[in-house]
């Protein structure tokens, strides 16, 4: 069983036979409306002339939301993203078990004077660099100050605090990274793509910082107009921790 298999097993596709109320693949975010609206980051590194068409494109809004989750097993990056957004629309969230809090503050507070490793850049990377004793940013395409992704095996075991996004689930790198998590490190997954699912606690994640959409119409409008989701009305940053 993979982490994706376990996440899919945590929802019941057969119990969600209705098509989505809305499905949109925006420039930065993808949205699927099921029992609630789920989001996932849209991959943006494929030029149109090199793109491969999505399966059943133009008709996906007719698929049951449960069936859309199965796209998480696809080899097509956009299909995987739609699958993750559908999963996030279905994952049951116990709001009494979490708090309305942006998980970036966890990294900033718990990373103070510590060794921090992040997988990719965050909007607050510069601030995190100021408070951490050492910050290592792992990037597939590193720029000045970054470390190449291949350095993960050396750097992650040294970390006191680890921050990563659900893009590691989308691109298939999560399980390899999880095997490197040191037992004493705090591991935080954050961003609107993050499934608010207890399943991820079984893989070494301690804190999940995702999002709950309380105004689907506004969120959908922002998605289709190319929003980066940094400031969207009706989007609640929601955090749950492993007990």
Describe it:
The protein is an alpha/beta fold. The protein has two domains: 3-93, Enolase-like, domain 1; 96-213 and 233-241, Rossmann fold. It is 26% helix and 21% strand. It has an eight-stranded mixed β-sheet, with helices on one face. It has a three-stranded antiparallel β-sheet with strand order 1-2-3. A hairpin with a 3-residue loop joins strand 1 and strand 2 (29-33). The longest helix has 14 residues, at 77-90. It is globular. 42% of the residues are buried.
Short description:
With 243 residues, the chain is an alpha/beta fold. It is built from nine helices and eleven strands. Strands 4-11-10-9-8-5-6-7 form an eight-stranded mixed β-sheet, covered by helices on one side. A three-stranded antiparallel β-sheet has the order 1-2-3.
Keywords, please?
2 domains; 243 residues; globular; 11 strands; 3-stranded antiparallel β-sheet; Rossmann fold; 8-stranded mixed β-sheet; Enolase-like, domain 1; alpha/beta
Tell me the total number of β-strands: 11
Strand content is 15-25%
Radius of gyration: 17 Å
CATH fold assignment of the largest domain: Rossmann fold
Separation, N- and C-terminal Cα atoms: 23 Å
Helix/strand order, N-terminal first: HEEEHHEHEHEEHEHHEEHE
Strand order of the largest sheet: 4-11-10-9-8-5-6-7
Q: How does the overall form come out from the CA principal axes?
A: globular
Q: Structural class, from helix and strand content?
A: alpha/beta
CATH architecture classification name of the largest domain: 3-Layer(aba) Sandwich
Number of helices: 9
| Number of structural domains | 2
Low-pLDDT windows of residues: none
- State the share of residues found in helices, binned by percent: 25-40%
Mean pLDDT score: 91
Please write the CATH class name of the largest domain. Alpha Beta
Reported for the largest beta sheet, the result is: 8 strands, mixed
């Amino acid at each position: 069983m993979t982490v994706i298999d376990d996440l899919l097993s945590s929802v019941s596709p057969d119990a969600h036979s209705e098509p989505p109320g809305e499905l949109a693949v925006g420039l930065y975010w993808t949205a699927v409306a099921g029992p609630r609206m789920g989001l996932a980051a849209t991959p943006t590194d494929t030029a149109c002339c090199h793109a491969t068409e999505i399966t059943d494109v133009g008709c996906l809004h007719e698929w049951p939301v449960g069936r859309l989750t199965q796209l998480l097993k696809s080899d097509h990056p956009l299909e995987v993203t739609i699958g993750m957004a559908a999963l996030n629309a279905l994952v049951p969230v116990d709001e009494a078990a979490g708090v309305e809090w942006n998980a970036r503050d966890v990294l900033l507070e718990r990373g103070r004077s510590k060794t921090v490793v992040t997988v990719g850049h965050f909007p607050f990377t510069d601030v995190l660099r100021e408070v951490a004793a050492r910050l290592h940013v792992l990037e597939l395409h590193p720029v000045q100050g970054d470390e190449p992704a291949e350095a993960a095996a050396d750097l992650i075991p040294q970390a006191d605090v680890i921050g990563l996004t659900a893009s590691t689930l989308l691109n298939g790198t999560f399980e390899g990274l999880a095997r490197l998590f040191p037992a004493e490190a705090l591991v935080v997954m954050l961003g609107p793509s993050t499934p608010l699912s207890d399943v991820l606690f079984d893989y070494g994640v301690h804190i999940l910082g995702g999002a709950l959409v309380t105004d689907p119409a506004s969120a959908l409008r922002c998605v289709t107009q190319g929003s980066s989701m940094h400031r969207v009305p009706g989007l609640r940053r929601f955090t749950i921790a492993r007990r």
